Amino acid sequence: MARLALVTGGTRGIGEAICLALKDAGFAVVANYVGSEERAKAFTEQSGIPAYKWNVADHQACHDAVARIEAAHGPIEVLVNNAGITRDATMLKMTFEMWREVIEVNLGGCFNMAKAVYPGMRERKWGRIVNIGSINGQAGQIGQVNYAAAKAGIHGFTKALAQEGARFGVTVNAVAPGYIDTDMVAAVPPEVLEKIVARIPAGRLGQAHEIARGVVFLCGEDAGFITGSTLSINGGQHMY
Ligand code: NDP
Questions:
Q1: Model confidence over 134-155: pLDDT tens digits?
Q2: How far apart are CA 216 and CA 42, in angstroms?
Q3: Full domain range(s) for residue 145
């Protein structure tokens, strides 16, 4: 039986690429999304991968969704915490709401989802959790104290849970993408993006499938000794 992977924010951008790559690698895959219905419908039609709607910032909703998915598809053996948002502003302009929302979705979502699937993985003595961090959680970024803090938190979360899960066959790793050509980066003003690309040694934005490549690697049967690590995929922009 194929192992079941759940990818949050899996219906577009990096998450979509991760879903497709995991499916290609032989996993059964389920995706989550929060609001873009049309996009999710098109994704399921094209890929055959079911998509479930809930907000990863809602603790109870995560538990309920995991129960529903496991009843329909079997135990979740791979969790990719990919769902994320930005609410950018410099400190003077950032509101408490912008801070709260980014922390609750990006970092709170990782806790909520891991809390729902980790007990089963531990009991079955096999699991893969991959958290999508960010170069901006490693290096910081003007206008992103909320996002950088949430992503840096993900890196700490990863190392702590990795230590808890290791002896139960549950690995926990992070992937830290650089700037990737998705809707999230399309929201960056072109003049800012031009300056960002100029600082990437590879001379271009990354592609979503290049992040998926790293995630699939960390989910492999033979990746059981890799835990607590952060795989940076950023075209050489930041070496951590
Ligand atoms: P996109 O904005 O393209 O897609 C985000 C996905 O997350 C969507 O599927 C969205 O669902 C889902 N999502 C957002 N909020 C929630 C929520 N509260 N509950 C459930 N799902 C949610 O993002 P990217 O593909 O660019 O980014 C994916 C991940 O990679 C994020 O964690 C991001 O921080 C990280 N990253 C991205 C980089 C980049 O350059 N693009 C760089 C570094 C890290 P819906 O479609 O319904 O809105």
A1: 999 999 999 999 999 999 999 9
A2: 23
A3: 4-232
